[in-house]
Amino acid sequence: MDSRQLNTLLAVVDTGSFDAAAASLGISASAVSQRIKTLESGMGRILVRRTSPATATPAGEILVQTARRMELLEKEAELQLEGRLNSVPLSVVINADSLATWFRQVLIDAATWPGAGLNISIEDERHSLRMLRRGDCMAVVTTESVAMAGCEVDYLGRHRYLPVCQPRLARWFSSGDFTWQTLPVARFGAKDRMEAAFLRQELGDFSPSPERREFHIPSYEGILDAVLAGLGWAMVPESTVWPLIEENRLAQLHPASLEIPLYWQRWKVESVMLDRLTDSIHAAAASSLD
After folding, report:
1. In percent, how much of the chain has pLDDT > 70?
2. Count of the separate structural domains present in the chain
3. Is 30 exposed, middle or buried (0-12, 13-18, 19+ CB in 10 A)?
4. Is 240 among the domain residues?
C-alpha cells in the first residue's frame, strides 16, 4: 500500500469530500480521485462511498484504521530517531458528561506532554465504539466491556448519576402536579436515554405521556443550566450536582441513583503517547469514578 494513497483516503474521510481533501493536501481534486481509484483497484474493492459526506465502506474502515496507526507510529519513530516530535494527533471519543467532569484532569496532564495533540470527539458512551470500528479515533470511553478486534479494553469505574430538578419543580412533582410520565425532561439528544434507563430501573415498564415535554440540549453545561432554570429534570453526575443540592439550588427527585460502567478501549499497538494517555485516563478515573 502506498502511503500517499492512504493519507489521501484519510483526508477524504476526515473532510467528507474529494474537493475538501484536495484543499487540505494541496493537490487537485482529480489527483485525489485518481489516488483513491488506484488504491481501490489495488485492493479489489470499493473503499469510499461517493456520498455527501463521503464515508468509508467496511473495507475502507479497515484501511483507515491502518493509516491512522501508521501515522502515529511514524510520528513516534521521528522522536526516537531524531530526538524531536512533531504533533501526534491522539484522537479520542468520549461522552460529554465525562469530558466535563473527571476527564478534565487528563486535559491538565496533556498540557505537559511535548508534541502531543488531542483531537476529542463527543459521542454517547453506548455508541462510541462504532467510531473506533470506523477508524475515526484510536481510543474511546465506552460502556462496552468486550474488546473489539485489534484493541484492548480496561475497566475505568462507575459514573454515578442522580435524578435532579429545580426545587420548585420538585415540589410540584411531590404535590401530584406532575408524574414521572409527564415531568418535563432535559437530555443531551435523541441517543441519550439515561432518564429512561433510570425509570425502567426503578419503575419497571415505563412509557412517557405524549404530553411530556422533552428538551434536547447538546451540551453538558447547557443541560445543567436548563435544570437550574426549571426547564425540566435530568440525570446529572453526582459529583457535579451534590454541592448544588446542599445549597438548595437543586433537589433530588428520587433517593436512587443510576450507575454507568465505563471502559477504555484503545488500539493494541506499541505507542509511547497512547500509553501515556492511557495512564492519565486510569489515574483520572481512579480519583473520580466509583
Report:
1. 96
2. 1
3. exposed
4. yes
Q: Are 85 and 98 in contact (CB under 8 A)?
A: no
Provide the CA 265 distance to its chain's centre, in angstroms.
12
- Whether cis (ω within 30° of 0) applies to the bond prior to 261 is no
CB of 244 closer than 8 Å to CB of 195: no
Q: What's the CA gap between 160 and 165, in Å, rounded?
A: 16
Q: Determine contact, residues 222/122, Cβ cutoff 8 Å.
A: no
Domain hosting residue 251, numbered range:
159-260
The C-alpha cell of 191 is what? 441517543
CA distance 68 to 267: 10
- Give CA–CA dist 58/130, Å, rounded: 11
Answer yes or no: is pLDDT of 104 > 90.
yes
**Residue 243 in domain:** yes
Residue with cell 502506498: 2
- Using one digit for the tens of pLDDT, what is the confidence trace for 115-172? 778 889 999 888 888 888 888 889 999 999 999 888 999 999 999 999 999 999 999 9
Would residue 29 count as lying in a domain?
no
Q: In the predicted model, is pLDDT for residue 81 greater than 70?
A: no
CATH number at residue 169: 3.40.190.10
Residue 63 DSSP SS3: helix
Q: How far is CA 85 from CA 69, 112, 113, in A?
A: 16, 14, 11
